[in-house]
Amino acid sequence: MSNYSIRAILKNDKMTGTEQTTKGETLPRGIAIAYWVATALLAFVVGSGGIGDITHQWGTIETEEILGYPSYFLTVIGIWKVLGAIAVLVPGFPRMKEWAYAGIFFEMTGAAASHAFAGDYGAYSYHMLTTIGFAVLTIVSWALRPNSRKL
Fold first, then answer.
1. What share of the chain is helix, strand, coil (3-state, %, to 5)?
2. What is the pTM of this model?
3. Inter-residue contact 120 to 67 (CB < 8 Å)
4. Which H helix or E strand runs over 144?
5. Of 150, 143, 129, whose CA–CA distance to 39 is shortest?
6. Which residues contact 124 (CB under 8 A, 6 or more apart)?
7. Where are the domains of the chain?
């Protein structure tokens, strides 16, 4: 085998559509792309939502009032959202990633349940549906992550 072909196999196998990750594992390119798309989307949604909560943007105070939560709850949950979004993106720290994924999942399913229990459905059922959708996105990102990002 030539030196070029060995390097091609180690770096990126174009024939089978696989990529080598940091710990020597080989992921199919489609799974790697799906992981990064899901993770980037999740980090954007959670991070921007956290910033909106921290800065009490339009709609957040009204939503918290509908649910019956105090306004300081937005700041607390917003800080955790931003930290969780950062945690799923940074390399390394697999235990922190597990906690971040769990926290995001609990936050999204808790938000859906809060809207359901507060009777915030009907014209506003999108609050429940979007948070359930983001919980599913969290599971997708978690399930597709490479071994280098697992415990």
1. 75, 5, 20
2. 0.80
3. yes
4. helix 126-144
5. 143
6. 115
7. 28-146
- Helix and strand totals (H; E) in the chain: 6, 3
Mean pLDDT to the nearest integer, 33-39: 96
Nearest-5° angle of CA 107, CA 45, CA 104?
25
Q: Is residue 51 classed as helix, strand or coil in its secondary structure?
A: helix
Burial of 30 (0-12, 13-18, 19+ CB in 10 A): exposed
Cα 52 to Cα 20, 74, 76: the distances in Å are 37, 9, 12
Amino acid at 133: G
| pLDDT digit string, tens, across residues 65-121 | 889 999 899 999 999 999 999 999 999 899 999 999 999 999 999 999 999 999 887
Q: Which residue(s) pair with 27 in the sheet?
A: 19
Whether residue 97 contacts residue 91, with contact meaning beta carbons closer than 8 Å, is answered with no
**Which pLDDT belongs to residue 11?**
46
User: How far from chain centre, in Å, is Cα 81?
Assistant: 10
Contacts (Cβ under 8 Å, ≥6 apart) of 135: 105, 108, 109, 112
Provide the phi-psi class of 145: left if phi over 0, else alpha when psi is between -120 and 50, else beta. Answer: beta
